[in-house]
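Quick check before the chapter quiz. The format below is the same one you will see on the exam, so make sure you can read both the input and the output lines.
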Amino acid sequence: MRLIEDDASAGFSLRALADRLGVAHRALYNHFADRDALLASVAARGFHRLSDSLIDAPDAASFLAAYVRFALDQPGLYAVMMARSYDQFNAAPLLRAAADRMIAIALRVLAVDGTDDDTRRRAVMRVWMLAHGGIGLHRSGVLRMRSDEELVTEILRIAGLAEDEPQPHQPLWSGTSEKE
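Here is the expected output.
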C-alpha cells in the first residue's frame, strides 16, 4: 500500500514492489495473477478505508467533506481506486463489493427519502461527480486554492451544503474572456 500511496500514478511494476518488499518477484504471483489483480486488491482496500471514514457521517455535508479529505490525504490510493473501469469492478468481486459498500453508505446519507431508486442513485452520482471533478482540478493545479481545506469548503458551497457565507477569497479561475 505504501508504494501506491507514494506513487500517485501507480506506475510501478511488480518487480519494483517485490524489491521493496525484499521478496522474489515471482513470489507475488502466488498472491496476484498480475499487476491489475494487485491494483484491484489495493483499490478494494481503499474503498473499505473510505467507507470506514464515511459510515458515521450524519449528513451530506459531513459525508462530502470526509470524502474530499480522504482523496486529498491519500492521493495515490484514491487515484488507484478511481482508475478502475466498470468492467474491472465487475471482474473483481471483492473490489465490486467494497465499492458497493461505499455507494450504499452514500445512498443512505445523500439520497432524498421517498424518491425512487433511480432518483436516489442520480443524487449520489451528482455529488460523486462534483467531488471527483473538484479533486481532479485541484490536484492538477487548474483551480487556484490556497489549501486543501479551502477546496473542501468550496465544494460544499458549490453543492449547496456549506453553512457559512462565502468569504472573499482568491478566485478559483480568473481572467475569463471570449476574445482570442
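If your answer matched, good. Residues 117-140 form the longest helix (24 residues).
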